[in-house]
Amino acid sequence: MKSPTHATVAHASAPDASPLIQVSGALLGIIVLILAGAWLVKRLGISGANTRGIQGLKVSASASLGPRERVVVVNVEDARLVLGVTANQVTLLHTLPPASPEPAPTSSPDFSSLMKNVLQRPRRS
To answer: Any stretches that span the bilayer, and where are they (predicted)?
Structure first.
């Protein structure tokens, strides 16, 4: 008689899901970082636009009144204009006399003195 032979059957196993989870997690993390960065740029008002403006024209103050409404003070050569700005129009609200010249800024402390101050501060626990 023949002895019974045992055949081993290799079961096809499902592919390992670990790399798929890692890649999905990394992609999700990158998307979250991009969205957080965009929110931060929008929140802080950082833009790549040229903020120096046209020669002789400078926005000196701005206040938001609503989602698309602002009051802006613009310095022009010999006057300051208070403008109401909406999505559809710009309206002159008032004309102010020219601003007095700004005093020269005081010199800022050098880097070494700033570092000494930071290092000498008592640490908080």
So the answer is: 20-41
First-to-last C-alpha distance (Å) of the chain:
84
CA 5 to centroid of chain Cα atoms:
71
Contact 116, 93 (CB under 8 A): no
Give the whole-angstrom CA distance, residue 18 versus residue 94: 66
Q: Is the pTM of this model over 0.70?
A: no
Q: Which is nearest to 51 in space by CA: 62, 40, 43?
A: 62
**Rounded CA gap, 80 and 97, in Å?**
6
21: amino acid identity, one letter:
I
